[in-house]
Hints:
heterotrimer, A: mainly alpha, two-stranded antiparallel ribbon, B: 6-stranded mixed sheet, 23 strands, 26% helix, cell membrane (chain C), transmembrane helix (chain C), transmembrane (chain C)
Amino acid sequence: MEAKPEAVLEGAGGKAIEGRSLGRIAWMRLKRDKAAIIGAFVVLFLTLVAIFAERPFGGLIALFGDSPNIPNNDLIDPLTSAPIGAWGGISLEHPFGLEPVNGRDLFARILSGAQISLLVAFLATLLSVVVGSLMGVLAGFFGGWVDTVISRLMDVFLAFPLLLFAIAIVGALPDRALGLSGNGLRIAVIVFIIGFFSWPYIARIVRGQTLSLREREFVDAARSLGAGNGYIIFREMLPNLVAPILVYATLLIPTNILFEAALSFLGVGVNEPQASWGGMLTRAVDYYQIAPHFMIVPGLAIFITVMAFNLLGDGLRDALDPRAR
Amino acid sequence: MRKTNALALAALGTVLTMGLAACGGTAGGGGNTSSGNNATGDAASAAKHNDAYTKVVNPSDAKGGTLKYALSDEPDSMDPGNTYYAWNWNFSRLYSRPLMTYTAQPGEAGLKLVPDLAEAPGEVSADGKTWTYKLKKGIKYDDGTEVKAADVKYAIARSNFTDELTDGPKYFAQYLDSGDYKGPYKDKDLNNFKGVETPDDYTVVFKLKAPFSEFDFLAANPQSAPVPQAKDTGVDYEKAVVSTGPYKFESHEVGKQLNLVRNTNWDPATDSVRKQLPDRIEVQFKQNAEDIDNRLIAGQIQVDLAGTGLQSAGRAKIVNDAKLKDSTDNPFTPFNRYAMISTKVKPFDNIDCRKAVQYATDKVATQAPWGGPLGGEIGTTAMTPTTVGYKAFDLYPNGADHKGDLAKAKEALAACGQPNGFEANVAVRGDRTKEVQVAEALQASLDRVGIKLTIKKYPSGDWSAQYAGKPDFVHKNNLGIMIAGWGADWPSGFGFLSQIVDGRFIKASGNYNMMELNDPSVNELLDKGIQTTDATARNEIWAQVDQKVMESAAFMPFVYEKTLIFRPSNLTNVYVHPAWGMYDYTWLGVKQ
Amino acid sequence: MPGSDPPGHPGRTIVVAFIVRRVIAAVLMLAVVSMATFAIFFLIPRALGQTPEGMASRYVGRDATPEAIQGAVKRLHLDDPLIVQYGRFAKGIVAGEDYSLGPKKAECPAPCFGFSFNNNQPVWPTLVDRLPATLSLALGAAVLWLVTGVSIGVVSALKRGSVLDRAAMTVALAGVSLPIYFTGLVSLSVFAYTLGIFPGGGSYTPITENPVMWFQALVLPWITLAFLYAALYARLTRAGMLETMGEDYIRTARAKGLKESTVVTKHALRATLTPILTIFGLDLGLLLGGAVLTESTFSIQGVGKLVIDAIRGNDLPVVLGVTLFAAFFIVLANLIVDILYAVVDPRVRLS
Lengths: 325, 592, 351
């Protein structure tokens, strides 16, 4: 059960990527990669947009003079439910047009939804990085039965039809649990599910890297100087693992954005009226024939965001591992 | 829950009676556009928008052809004894004959009950507790055997007294005096079922716990259609229902396809309501809703079985095409879409806080999710315009444009001691997009006067059993407002109101009086009404009940639901039957 | 070398032993997955305050009396300890189970994945019924993406840095960045609704009924699904090829004077394809358990649509059945891949 998608995605074939000495070279390479730089800028831009979307003082949304949850029924044709005007009611006041039926401003809703997409993706990635790195290091470092147990555990996790589980669990959520309620609870659970079930992807890579690091001289040196396992793992191994972890975390974020969007699309994401990109697409299903912009706007938002993260992640990987170019 | 699936109510009330009074039948000139062309109503091209609402469009006695239905959903069951879908109470009459049924006529006349399997309407005893029906002689099943009174008794027993057949209503179990009868699956001896007696093969006697003047309506439920005990396979019976109607089962793949063919053992001489025109009737289940619309408009299929109307894309197509629009009808359905405001959850236990909600709501915004004016008319009463006894009134006028009277709302808030508004929850069935959109609109409306709503979504499957229909849960979770809907199971004021406003119907679970209104004057009026034999006096009482309910400010109607249904030009004998708010499926034929 | 063991040689026994070991592991894995699935669907709701009565209320219709609910609790054994319930569920899969339909019992022969009380059908036949649609979708798309994805990847790798490579990789990157339901909706909107070239959603027809309709209805879903995977596979193939081409043995082969086409097809491609086929097996296994998003977007009544509808309708037996069914395909794909590896590459057997 060795050959898994990640082994190939990884490209490096499980060989360790050297850390510090490579860092500067990698940075030079990255700077030359135009696509990655564009990706990085878009990522930065989107992150800032998400952070300042609704704060402080109503944030960007208020700056543009609208609110994501206020209906504009006057701007909707009552007989067809479609926004009045060409292109879904796109105008200076409503640059992305209006939602059918209730006429909510799509620009405000896209901005508001960006918060959810990025927040969930970042937190879930963080969780899987923490769990995955720990498991990967343990498996790779100790080998033997520890490795066997963790590897089998990863197999089991990968054998779960994750999407189904996610839908079922989120769908069965009570109103209030763990001291959280409403969307706070939902976001926490979604983050937990996505993060908890995607840790094997990180763990595999970290395990492979650890396996090869373990055989290196500096580890032997540290050990011969009397360093304990903890010292070796945290002081010697982890610093050398930061780069690959960072790369694959960057590549995991877009996957997680898509995952959150898929959950929202299937109706188990955050609760309305909080906007989410996937949730907007769900509603667009009913109106794509009469209001195609309602499908295109959130679809493009997801696409651009995911693409930007992928560009950045590809660039980072190429920079750190030239063989994959 | 009864509301979404249920049958209707629907005597055409004051709103329509003006147009209908004169026509009452097959070739009337009612409606809004076609008063001049009521001669014979021959050509399809002559039919206008809403024509089938008042008269028969494309009348024809031509036999033959295959009539095709499609349904986007899957039925609970095609077993007449185990279904709660309004369309199925209409459709199942093609292969099953209840004791009573509705007259085959558009308009008000269609709400009159006529005997079907029975010879005459039920005869009630002096104490009002015994109803007797005589069966027509010589009615046969599709295998040629004769229908016996015991089969009717058995049908009632299986549909109302078993754990297995759970999908239909349980009115007979509720009203019949049957002790602790265990049902025919646990207790094979039908003699132990004392609620119904069969003194001979052609007489069925119902024994009631208390007088109930509208029992004929119950006898019109498909649950009273006979089932031979030997043929009953329980839940599986839907696979091969034994037919008494003009069509019989050829094949039925559950959840996929049902094919009906002519039943040669059906005798039209015994049947005053049905026709037997097409050679075959085919039903496809689980079809894509938009695809159904496209195929309807193209004439490839003839009827959307659910009768719930066109999807948004189809609607847009119709609205923008005058010719297509002439092939549509826009009838009221039996449903009222409303919010119930709990009288037990703070601060709504104070009537002024409830009034604040009534005044602050933008009813144009809450109408939009149903599809605007084509999807429903803005409502101000508990009963719908097509309910017998309906009287128009508006106790909480919220502006000329219905967009809310914020000044009055603030006054009411002040009177309630919450001048700056408050926080509350609104419960909604999360998988019903339209209702969620209504909740969102309500949220935005009330926000204008400082009432901050949080939307709580619950699955519709457990909605009445575990969430909004469970007062305990409602109190514990502070569900101040609940978005719901209701269409009655039989067309009478009692049928519409009793389950949702009678304080004695508040149940620990499966409760539809979610506002927990327990007003003695309402309860008394209901009792008085059901014992009043004079129809006019009785209808007057239903209007009074409506008034009382609205005075409580706990019931906030959004819209009287309407649908936009399409009739392809190759569909013949089309009219909207008032009892269902959809086409009469037993009349339809197809042009070849 | 693989295949060099003469008959009766210990090597063959090792292969058999390996296969037996892997099969046992796979069965154990399914058992674990089934327990976890069961726990998620029955334990978590209970931990969150769900009562047996609450579970039962889903099965008793709209007008349930408390007695009816109690009856359902008894009938469905919902008041048994969970371990007993799991035992009954597991026994049903292995040995079948009977359910009361009223006057008679419904047999639910093995493998009985339970009984849907929403449409009163045993889960297994429903699943089997839905499988052809999912199979049609997944297999057709798989052929499409494997052929296009791999060839684009190979060509890109060979023409590395060319305009063609850049264009292909840009499209591929876009492909993996687009949500499948969005591509699906756009293609429906353009090709079905606006241009009318292909039929719209929900027009799937079984091949046995009308092969032409079957094909027409599946073109858009195939392309939509294959686009995502082809993009992924093109990226993987290209990366794999580039890595292989840099290996020593390829250089050796070239140095030996072998023709470039021989080097590429005989050596590089073979080495690249092995891991790709592995992933292919797993992806296909995953899709056979239901292409949830694609089936939802195009309203194809397959296994994925079944489970989504079941989740929305709170039909736990169906959800549980499909989840297990999907896990079965994933484990099976894993198993086949493992065994193929063991047969092809003797080193694996020792691990």
